[in-house]
Amino acid sequence: MIxxxxxxxxxxxxxxxxxxxxIFACAGSLWGLLMGKPTAPRFRVRTATIDGRKSRNxxxxxxEPTVSLADxxxxxxxxxxxxxxxxxxxxxRNAGVIEWLARRRGQKTAxxxxxxxxxxxxxxxxxxxxxxxxxxxxxxxxxxxxxNVRWSPERFVTEADNVFCGGGxxxxxxxxxxxVERYCGHELAxxxxxxxxxxxxxxxxxxxxxxxxRSAHDDEQIQRAQKWLVSHFREAVELDExxxxxGMSPRNFARRFKAATxxxxxxxxxxxxxxxxxxxxxxxxRSVQEISQAIGYEDVAFFRQLFRRHTGSSPREYRAxxxxxxxx
Length: 328
Known about the structure:
With 328 residues, the chain is an alpha/beta fold. The chain is built from 15 helices and eleven strands. The protein has helices spanning 15-26, 30-35, 87-93, 95-102, 118-123, 139-145, 171-184, 186-195, 220-232, 239-245, 250-261, 265-283, 288-294, 300-311, 315-322; strands spanning 2-7, 43-49, 55-56, 62-63, 67-68, 77-80, 110-114, 131-132, 150-151, 157-160, 163-166.
């Protein structure tokens, strides 16, 4: 059983606490109930405030926690929800939470921040030198306040060294489903999404990938190339031209790309496209040919072959297993 602590912040938005709470609580159980199969809950979830008292939110709702943060001796995952759009006020209101998070540096506990709650992770020093995302409306203020963080607002979800960030307000759903997949596998994440009538998690704003391509490295030229591929992967991509865009020879580009990401630029491009195809098959009613063309493959036979190589099944078989439920 994976132990999850959802922090209830002062001045936050309660939906970003409740969505993770419900998703983790339902993972492994709700799908079985709906399908008449045995249930096997995978997460044990609790809520906490700094002092164990009810939290006062930005909307007229109060939430009562199950424990105080001082009572949390051990937990596998901590979720920090949206903290409000005034970052300075959020930091002041939740100073105790920041101190508690800072004490967890170097421990094995995973920490996930949602929307402006990510700024509290930055204030605790958890994001120094790491990629992070947050709401597009506050990213410039975050850059000014926390210049040691590698802000990537084009992404819905980032992950580095057991620290996770979700971008917008409703990225709490994407991030929670992503974490279910991270801990319990893709199939359980899809079942959880289906049982709650949610889409599978969005990772990139321009590419709905099931897993974020590796970007926790320090090669800035390769990071530029990755961002360009994320924005243009649906187009006809000339990798030699991309190498020139970032100031490298094709040979040096291929070598450094693989050293930074663990795979070559062509393999990375294919994975971006195939992960997007997976999302379409899981959540949209497009034909296989339409999906193939939408992600940059005019040759549908080649797409089918490549999809099977990456996933172990054909697009049709994958949709039958993970596609959206049809109404009776």
